[in-house]
Write a structure and sequence with these properties.
The protein is mainly beta and 1180 residues long. The chain has eight helices and 75 strands.
């Protein structure tokens, strides 16, 4: 679970934050002012100070916030001066924006606030449409405005060049005042709320900020996004009354409370209008009126003037007003909703030191919460066992909120001291007047042992009081923690206090459950002399609490403070050196014991199991001959153990043909891969052998359920590995690949894979599956393996093997973790224009389906489009996708002359068809040997390919963020493959691909298709110094690059593979690009300059195979481009990484027919590797 923050404000105006990975509140000491309220998001927090101004706190990150300022210098040619600053009266300004309409001299640009700083001075951009310009950066045209080119022609009468300057946001992890010049609010602010980052696939970092003034007016902050976190200006949103409080959710839900107690809902919020269009009035849940409201993704909570809590049902993006109110038990002063729709509520006794959390509407109703103070943690125990059994890490006890008589409190204390259980409230207590009607006490009168009624001393318990039975805890709704101030005092147990006094202390502190106190051995008091905070406001808009993860906020019931203190003291008293010596001693003793026990049995013959077992099942088989169709077959796996202990097996497939029983068979040791296949109607997997890989025609089987398919895949995979003697995790030299489904496969290469002149054919390589789900995987030969998911989350390999389909197997237990991935499913809405109705969904008979996939050959509607497999679950509704690379109009449409054609995001007179893409997100939860690397989302990653015997300590790793920033990972070693931190490498534009090779050569591809080389990269300077623009191949835009030891290969957007010529240590940029092949999707260059690709289409015996792993043959120092392709496994593959295979291949010299010293027929003799360019990798 990624680390996120929960923000809160106490009654003294101090701001605190609590991390989901931490255990105590942390005060924001940098705040010079007292704050009234805060509104948190995932990447920042907004606050209202007591001076009624708005402040912003942006979380610190390894990725800096940079904003690009640009202006254009324009010149015109005249016969006297040539190109000069003298322009015609009808021309644009000498310094202007890109349109020429706005005057923008260099000195007109300033910093928007004190939170910004300039990175450097103005400089000329010498890059134009992915190609470098001449010195000076000028582009030429015949007139203003016109089409510009980088070459000067005889009719070029005007020219211009772009000047750039970057400013960086420096006010990180501190409160910065929002600038008031030109955009100040006319009235002081009383409430704020932020959200809106999920409105119709808005880019990450775009926010909606709403503010309420003291006069009840509502204002919207314009222009807040990642590159401008402070926003630009305020816009007033007229309301049908005076507003007292407002709440904005992550999506398009905005609710507000009027002074009269009514609620209003903002409608018309969309991507093009994030501030909405109109308000709709919603009646209050009770006659007394509402005082507060909080919204999430699809939930709305409200608090009325009598402190009652209400839930709005039926709320979603299509019906933001909902259908009705549901009353909840309990009294609260406010409510706030977090990222996962969990509700955070301080209790109703203001000033309050209590705090509660509502997490999930289908599990435990209300969840106990926390407070950490004075180095101790107080948490209520009780019916925690039943809560955890239900899958929730919160406890489920009950606390009353209204006052109770002293007699009732005394009765409860007597029952607790006697070991009995207190009387729980009735399940329908909220019907008969709330907690007070049930006779529940609310105020706790602390009577401490040895003090006899003196308040303010902390109770200490050696054992918790009896918990509520699970049968009684099911109906309990509220669970609170008294946040009353405690002070340090001697432990009553250590002072000799009787056990009864301890129990009385527990009973006095909590009438329905006990308090367990843990000592944390803090070096200083976390809250100072004022004691623990009394909460006045809380904001969970940036806090993501996963119900499947255990938080450190909550204590473990049944553990005494003395035990925790003793365990901690014991752990602190053992030094790392003592721990290492202890481990070494244990290993020596185990070795001596094993030697003693085995010494007497060495003369016995080793027992070898010789057995045969068979597993059978019913499946369907895609018939090999025409007409191809699914037929019912009997499938069997017969596995046996030979005399030498080796396991092997045979696969049998029994079918009927012309009323005659026949069968197919394949030896298990001949199977090269078992892979799941995408099929909308069946649970299909394919079995490949070397011969069937050549034919592109595997044995395709379909199971009745996905669970049965995974069982067969796991069993067959284990049998294949046993027959080949492959066990455990992948080696450091393994070749990694990923299918279009996201399945991960590895292959253990043989030394003869790159041997010349007879390398091992690719179709004979054995691939086995590894648990997890990723989009790409990159590796190197020292064992560092990184992957990136479809949701741009970075993952690092833990060194384990298993997970996924191998759950429950013995080999799938170590270093296996839960992994999640989110991907989007796309469908296309197609329309054709006609003179009567314009664009409509009525197409020609020869047109594609009006709702289809990208190719238009398959019909895909919203109602019938399903998730990729039953393991995926929908997490969003269908929405128009505006992030198409070719661009869209305001409604998401792309236009073209006909189907299919080149689409563009604007309409012309020749466009008769249009389409737009709809997207819906789905989520997968699986397991695998992967751990998440937070917090920056990545789109590409590259690791230095080292030699087999490399002694490199820190492994260079480069990456591209999903925003296009170039990053360098620090602290990556074999022991810490995840590294320590990110180093941002400055660029002038967004990038999409990066690769690091021998001698720390770093190449990258920008989003406009241009290539760049990073100079002066070394161990002492891991980020290098500057970028060198490398010209792209003529009329091509590159999309991916891979750098080996000395070879650089790149793939353009048209599927062409290019090789960079004349790359030398003295001139690492090379001279030119040489075309190698077409029909290439991706390329991977290894540490020995071996070249592997994913071919887009490969001809087989029956059909084309898209996405095939191919190996370039004949690559050697004299011919680094190679000669031909060797086709391997496919299709359906999307990524391959050869960068871990650094095994030097044996050189085989063929016997000469004229050499009499050699026998006429003999085995070729292996020779040593050639020195020079094909030796060890540079810098490794």
């Amino acid at each position: 679970m990624p680390v996120s923050l929960l923000w809160a404000v106490d009654v003294c105006g101090r701001v605190y934050r609590l991390s989901t990975g931490g255990q105590q509140w942390e005060q924001c000491h940098d705040a010079q002012l007292e704050f009234k309220r805060v509104a948190a998001a995932a990447q920042c927090c907004w606050g209202i100070a007591c001076d009624h101004d708005i402040y912003l706190n942006v979380h610190a990150s390894d990725l800096s916030i940079r904003y690009q300022e640009e202006t254009y210098e324009n010149q015109r040619w005249n016969p006297v001066d040539g190109f000069s600053e003298r322009l015609l009266p009808s021309d644009r300004w000498q310094w202007s924006d890109v349109t020429g309409l706005v005057h923008q001299p260099l000195d007109s640009f300033g910093l928007p606030s004190s939170g910004w700083e300039w990175e450097a001075d103005w400089y000329v951009d010498e890059n134009f449409e992915a190609e470098p310009t001449e010195k000076g950066g000028w582009t030429y045209a015949m007139d203003f405005p016109a089409t510009y080119t980088k070459d000067k022609k005889w009719n070029s009468c005007v020219r211009r060049r772009r000047w750039l300057r970057y400013r960086r946001y420096k006010a990180r992890d501190s409160w910065a005042k929002i600038p008031s010049q030109h955009s100040a609010l006319p009235d002081p602010v009383s409430d704020i709320s932020c959200g809106g980052w999920e409105i119709s696939e808005e880019p990450r970092g775009r926010l909606s900020l709403w503010a309420v003034s003291l006069q009840g007016k509502v204002w919207y902050r314009e222009g807040i996004h990642h590159h401008n976190p402070e926003g630009s200006s305020w816009t007033e949103a007229s309301v049908p009354g005076e507003v007292v409080q407002i709440s904005c959710g992550p999506g398009d839900l905005v609710w507000a409370v009027l002074w009269e107690g009514q609620l209003v809902v903002r409608e018309g919020i969309c991507r093009d209008c994030p501030s909405g269009t109109a308000w709709t009035v919603v009646d209050s849940p009770s006659t007394v009126g509402a005082t507060g409201v909080a919204v999430g993704v699809n939930v709305v909570w409200a608090v009325t003037k009598d402190n009652k809590v209400w839930f709005r049902r039926g709320v979603n993006s299509h019906n933001p007003c909902g259908t009705g109110w549901i009353g909840m038990v309990g009294e609260m002063i406010m409510v706030n909703v977090g990222l996962n729709d969990q509700a955070n509520l301080p209790n109703g006794d203001l000033p309050s030191r209590r705090y509660s959390v509502r997490a999930g509407l289908s599990k435990v109703p209300w969840c106990a919460c926390f407070d950490r103070r004075c180095g101790r943690w107080a948490a209520r125990t009780g019916a925690c066992t039943s809560g955890r059994a239900a899958g929730c890490f919160f406890t489920g006890e009950v606390r009353g909120q209204s006052a109770a008589s002293d007699a009732d409190s005394d009765t409860e204390r007597e029952r607790a001291a006697a070991g009995g259980s207190p009387t729980p409230p009735t399940p329908d207590a909220h019907v008969t007047g709330g907690p007070s009607a049930a006779g529940l006490p609310t105020q706790e009168e602390e009577l401490l042992p040895g003090e006899h009624g003196k308040p303010g001393q902390p109770p200490t318990s050696s054992s918790p009081a009896p918990a509520l039975p699970s049968s009684q805890s099911r109906g309990l709704l509220w669970s609170n923690v008294d946040l009353e101030e405690t002070q340090s005092q001697p432990d009553p147990v250590a002072e000799g206090a009787p056990g009864g006094a301890v129990l009385d202390s527990c009973a006095d502190t909590c009438s329905l459950s006990s308090v367990v106190t843990y000592s944390l051995a803090l070096e200083e008091e976390p809250y100072g002399e004022d004691g623990p905070p009394m909460w006045a406001w809380v904001s969970g808009g940036g806090c993501s609490v996963d119900s499947h993860s255990q938080l450190n906020w909550f204590s473990c019931p049944g553990t005494s403070g003395a035990l925790a203190q003793s365990v901690q003291n014991m752990s602190l008293s053992i030094s790392p050196g003592q721990t290492a010596a202890w481990h070494q001693q244990i290993l020596e003793q185990l070795g001596q014991r094993s030697k003693r026990e085995m010494e007497n049995f060495r003369h016995y013959e080793q027992a070898v199991e010789q057995s045969v077992w068979v597993k059978k099942g019913n499946m369907q088989w895609w018939r090999d001959w025409k007409p191809h169709k699914w037929v019912d077959v009997r499938f069997a796996l017969e596995q046996f153990s030979g005399p030498d202990g080796n396991k092997d097996g045979i696969l049998f497939l029994y079918y009927n043909f012309n009323e005659e029983k026949k069968y197919l068979h394949a030896f298990v040791n001949e199977v090269t891969i078992l892979v799941p296949v995408l099929n909308d109607a069946k649970h299909t997997f394919a079995i490949y052998t070397a011969e069937r890989t050549k034919q592109r025609w595997p044995i395709r089987l379909a199971a009745s359920t996905e669970l049965e398919m995974h069982d067969w895949l796991a069993l067959l995979s284990v049998s294949c590995c046993d027959s080949r003697g492959i066990q455990g995790p992948p080696s450091k030299q393994a070749i990694w690949s990923v299918t279009c489904r996201g399945d991960i496969f590895v292959s253990e290469p043989s030394p003869a894979l790159e041997a010349l002149p007879y390398p091992t054919p690719c179709e004979q390589m054995f691939w086995r599956q590894v648990g997890g789900h990723l989009r790409l995987v990159e590796c190197n030969s020292v064992g560092v393996v990184w992957g990136i998911g479809y949701d741009h989350t970075a993952w690092v390999h833990t060194g384990g093997y298993g997970g996924g389909i191998f759950q429950g197997l013995a080999s799938s237990t170590d270093n296996i973790y839960t992994q999640t991935d989110v991907k989007s499913v796309y469908i296309y809405e197609n329309q054709r224009w006609n003179p009567v109705t314009g664009y409509t969904n009525r197409g020609l008979p020869t047109d594609r389906y009006m709702w289809s996939d990208a190719s238009g050959l398959h019909e895909c509607t919203k109602a019938h489009t399903t998730t990729p497999s039953p393991h995926w679950t929908w997490v969003s509704d269908w929405a128009v996708d505006y992030g198409v690379s070719e661009g869209t109009d305001r409604e998401g449409w792309q236009y073209a002359a006909d189907f299919p054609a080149s689409y563009h995001g604007y309409k012309t007179l020749k466009d008769f068809v249009r389409r737009r893409r709809w997207a819906r997100k789905c989520k997968l939860t699986t397991t695998g040997p992967w751990q998440e690397v937070p917090p920056i989302a990545l789109s590409d990653v590259s690791i230095l390919p080292c030699a087999a015997q490399s002694s490199v300590e820190v492994v260079p790793l480069w990456a591209i963020s999903n925003k296009g920033d170039v990053l360098c990972r620090l602290g990556v070693t074999t022991l810490t493959p995840a590294g320590s931190s990110w180093l941002h490498v400055g660029t002038d534009q967004a990038f999409k691909s990066v690769s690091i090779g021998g001698a720390s050569q770093v190449w990258a591809i920008a989003r406009d298709g241009s290539a760049f080389y990073r100079g002066s990269v070394s161990t002492k300077n891991p980020a290098g110094e500057c970028w060198y623009h490398i010209p792209s191949p003529p009329k091509q835009k590159l999309k991916q690059v891979s750098v080996g030891r000395t070879s650089i290969c790149a793939v353009d957007e048209n599927g062409n593979l290019w090789y960079r010529q004349d790359v030398t240590p003295s001139y690492p940029q090379g001279s030119s690009w040489e075309h190698i092949s077409d029909n290439v999707r991706k390329v991977s260059v290894g540490p020995l300059d071996q070249v592997w690709i994913i071919a887009d289409k490969v001809q087989g015996s029956h059909s084309l195979s898209c996405g095939t792993v191919c190996h370039r043959l004949g690559v050697q120092p004299q011919d680094p481009k190679g000669q031909s392709w060797d086709y391997g496994i496919g299709g359906g593959w999307d990524h391959v990484s050869i960068r871990g295979n650094s095994m030097d291949p044996p050189r085989i010299s063929l016997p000469s027919l004229t050499d009499q010293s050699l026998p006429a027929r003999g085995i070729p003799n292996p020779t040593h590797n050639l020195e020079g360019a094909n030796g060890s990798a540079w810098g490794c």
